[in-house]
Amino acid sequence: MTRSVDDDLLDELLGVALGAATAAARLVHDGRPDELEVATKSSAVDHVTQMDHAAEALVRELVVGARPHDRVVGEEAGEPDGDGTSGLTWWIDPIDGTTNYVYDHPGYAVSVAVGTEDGALVGVVADPTHARTYVAARGRGARCTRDDGRTTELRLRPPPPVAQALVATGFSYDAARRGRNGAVVAQLLPQVRDIRRSGAAALDLCSVAAGRVDAYYEAGLSIWDMAAGRLVATEAGARVGALAGPDALPEVVLAAHPDLYGPLEELLRSLGAAEV
What we know:
Blueprint: H1 7-30, E1 38-40, E2 47-49, H2 50-66, E3 71-74, E4 89-96, H3 98-102, E5 109-116, E6 119-127, E7 132-137, E8 141-146, E9 151-154, E10 166-169, H4 175-188, E11 194-196, H5 201-210, E12 215-219, H6 223-235, E13 239-242, E14 252-256, H7 258-270
């Protein structure tokens, strides 16, 4: 059962998340060194850089400094920070889209979310290459703010039919699984408008919220990949669920307008997207 959260706490969490995410986004974008130190994680194409570590350390420092009794979990550092007595957990992806970052290709972001076992209460996705920051708080909607100060409230419009839907997706770092991803896409492509692959799950979810794509699906995500972006998409009116069953998030996620979700889910299941 979802617990209520008072406005003062939401305001505080939103301020901390926004400050931490934007500071880390400035660090990775403006402080990008000429020579990146690139290491690998789960496979030869799963990268991590010194800037991933630096950005996560900065977010952890800012969050723990402001909220020492929360639990803070990040993609890179492993062990959580904070004493965890508040019942709130922070999920940090210091650079979502590290491969794009390594190649200096637009399309990476800092993703920061905080919530409970019921899901995120606040989510911020800071996209420095496009000068956009996506912000959502539970029950308050979602917005996109540009660096020039312009702010757009995000709300999904009625969707097209599946055959006219622009669908975003992502591929696994594991070569065998990536091949299965590709086989699904090959069957899906003639049945939709087109496919987009940005390389950053948090931004794909925000793109659904902003109407830049009509839907997004991907297999093999982690909680920090989608915690903030899921809230942004949901608060904009999207349905975000799991193709592999209601308890499978974030294993195979699908996000779309509720009227598009069912038909697209049926199609993706028929193509084997839930079993990749």
